[in-house]
Give the backbone structure.
Amino acid sequence: MSSNKHRVVIVGGGFGGLLAAKSLKDADVEIVLIDRRNHHLFQPLLYQVATAALSPSEIAWPIRHVLRKQTNVRVLMATVVGVNTDQRTVLLEDGSSVAYDSLVLATGAQHAYFGHDEWEAFAPGLKTVEDATAIRRKLLVSLEAAERETDPDRRRALLTFAIIGAGPTGVEMAGAIIELGR
């Protein structure tokens, strides 16, 4: 990629970042896509990883592979820690920086505990593969323990799960847990 071209830096390799990069496929620009992970995650199916219906590799694809046919994009695996708008640079965790002419921030969303960070230990989010595998581990351990439990009250407690959030992920997760427990 030529350094004389207009440089578009995209922070985030999720749906927004990939769409931004792909929409510039035919543009005469240099694109640098930066993400802290080297894979794009299809988040709508995380609940299936959490309930052991899918493996993580079935919903996570290398960003470079997704953009392999696009010659004007370079992918960097790095953590962005800031933006210097005066110098038009993105600051990376390792102390380096990446210059930009145009900047797209597509960093996605994060969990909100509404000022109660202590809730996080009891109400894990479901935004990453790590979140999904941690939930899966807890679900499967509870199901296995319930299988061996002879006390009906203790068994019922082991088979009781609370889902906070009734959006698509919460609803799908609830249904998948019911199926998993059968």
Remarks:
- Residues 6-105 form a domain with the FAD/NAD(P)-binding domain fold (CATH 3.50.50.60).
- Strands lie at 6-11, 29-35, 39-41, 60-62, 73-77, 80-84, 89-92, 97-99, 102-105.
- The radius of gyration is 21 Å.
- The mean pLDDT is 94.
